[in-house]
Amino acid sequence: MKLKIKKDEFLRGLQRVQGVVEKRNTMPILSNMLLTAAKDGIEIVATDLEIGLRGSYAAEVKDPGAVCVSAKKLFEIVREVPEEEIQIETTDANGIKISSGHAQFKLVGLPQEEYPALPEVPEEGMIAIEGSTLRDMIRKTLYAVGDNDTRYVLNGLFVQMLPAKEGLKIRMVGTDGHRLSMVDRTVKAQHAEETVIIPKKAMMELRRLLEEDPSSTAELRMGFSKNHALFKRDGLVLVSKLIDGNYPNYQQVVPAQNKKKVSVGKDAFAHAVKRVSILSREKTNAVKMQLEKNRLILSTNNPELGEAVEELAVDFAGEGLAIGFNSRYVMDVLGAMDKDTINLELNDPLSPCLITEADDPDYRCVVMPMRV
Prior knowledge:
Layout: E1 2-6, H1 7-17, E2 32-38, E3 41-47, E4 51-57, E5 60-63, E6 65-70, H2 71-80, E7 85-90, E8 96-100, E9 103-107, E10 127-130, H3 131-141, E11 156-164, E12 167-175, E13 179-187, E14 194-199, H4 200-210, E15 219-224, E16 228-233, E17 236-241, E18 260-265, H5 266-276, E19 286-292, E20 295-302, E21 306-313, E22 321-326, H6 327-336, E23 341-346, E24 353-357, E25 360-367
Antiparallel strand pairs: 1-5, 1-7, 2-3, 2-6, 3-4, 4-17, 7-8, 8-9, 10-15, 11-12, 11-14, 12-13, 13-25, 15-16, 16-17, 18-23, 19-20, 19-22, 20-21, 23-24, 24-25
Helix pairs in contact: 1-2, 3-4, 5-6
């Protein structure tokens, strides 16, 4: 293998796979990536056996070939080389030589035959969706997904396809048992009703790819098989295993009837919660909210540090209420919302709080209360 490639182009491909390659080194081959050179350019493949990423990049290839080398070290080398053009060629014993200007590096590799192949996922019936829409859906729900939860299904994002009058309604739901986030969006597509659970890591990597060009409205296509999810866009292919299991009945967590409805400015509320939570207990992050006519009083009382109180003007005319929340959960919700005004819907101190954005009934968040 022998080729020339622009530094920026190569660096973009190497940067994309850094979050995919296995960090724990349980299998040495998984800390590597597969670099394949063909007549029309190069292909970079990385996998941790749960998710895999394949991307194509422009290069001037003199001799085709393939090599398996450390993804991290090659990325660090390319990032630091001085020139804008890089030469790469294979050496004996599965290694490569990287040259740029007066700098030269040699990396030891592994046989390409040992690298795991990405699973094949049929492309029939794939759904087209604007990348910006999908990115926004992931951003609004992924924060609520569990981390290493013993209930394994909660470590993934629940995705449901539902036929609708104007096409296909796609629903995403994330929950860890303490908070829940759910968003619906309709796309012009036809698809049978289907539900899948996609691992958090895969959705994090997909979101990262979609955030490379925030202004882009280019379409992305996604499809599902029995065991895998497939996403394709602009020469990139991301494939992920699905989580097998039954997702909990999230519908019963979302309050249907709420007696107390509060309207408040999002930024003012977010800054007040953040300030008051400075003195909250680190383990609980508890903040008390005292709701009264046209005002909301936020407070914390920590015997080891002190106390904090802040009052906000709100639109509320009902009977008062005192309730406690984990401030971090509330901040996560507010960070995912885009409107200037949000609505809090409550019943009593032991019932969950429904948080919605003004003018967007298809995005709903639920935060469970706590004793303060």
